[in-house]
Amino acid sequence: MSAHWTIGFDGDDTLWHNESIFSMTQERFRAILGEVDAAEVDRRLLETERRNLGLFGYGIKGFVLSMIETAIEVTDGRVAARDIQILIEAGKSMLAHPVDLLDGVAETVGYLSHSHRLVLITKGDLFDQESKIARSGLAELFDRIEIVSEKDPETYRRILARHDIPPERFLMVGNSVRSDILPVLEVGGQAVHVPYHITWAHEHVEPPAEGYRRIDGMAELTGVIAAL
Q1: How many whole angstroms separate alpha carbon 143 and alpha carbon 121?
Q2: Sorting pLDDT into bands at 50, 70 and 90, what band is 204?
Q3: Considering the chain, what is the average pLDDT of its residues?
Q4: How far is it, in rounded angstroms, from Cα 172 to Cα 194?
Q5: Dist CA 118 CA 157 (whole Å)
Q6: At 122, which helix (H) or strand (E)?
Q7: C-alpha atoms less than 13 angstroms from C-alpha of 184 in its C-beta half-sphere
Q8: Could you tell me the strand order of the sheet in which 117-123 lies?
Q9: Rounded to an integer, what distance in angstroms lies between the CA atom of residue 194 and that of residue 146?
Q10: Is the pTM of this model over 0.85?
Q11: 190 contacts: CB under 8 Å, gap ≥ 6
């Protein structure tokens, strides 16, 4: 793979842990609403999050607001103010959580940065993503950093056009089939799926039958790239 390729990396759950932090907070949310069946709590929260995506976007702040809204709805307004305060404090703790890189990320990204053009393409709350990128220690390894509100084909087309990247010379690496694989294949790029052990229900889609590569960890990426 020659240097005129560009490698895109997702951030959350591809370079650093993220969904596991949401999962721990959601477990606490279920405990607060102990009188309601846990599966029903999860279902109602997911409905609320999806309904709010167009208003709040992706990220911790929208998640916290959706938890509060769900708690009010499922308790018919009886949720205690102290429980709402607990959710707010949980959100603050999530925002301040240390950035924990996944195994092999620092070494792999550092190695590839010497011979390839790297672009970080991550979606979510601007302030939170900027903070995580800065604290990750990886920022200087990327030629470009793009924080977007959604990852769909049109978003990728805009990014590729803005940076003069031919789609056929673009490879995206990420944990989400919905956000990092399918839209990239649609615009004519290549993709590598690196699954994370937890996937947000909103991101669940069936993977394509072919046309992309799947690896079990970031340490395998250099071999895949060398074989292209």
Answers
A1: 11
A2: confident
A3: 94
A4: 10
A5: 17
A6: strand 117-123
A7: 30
A8: 144-148, 117-123, 6-9, 170-174, 190-193, 213-214
A9: 20
A10: yes
A11: 170, 171, 172, 184, 212, 213, 228
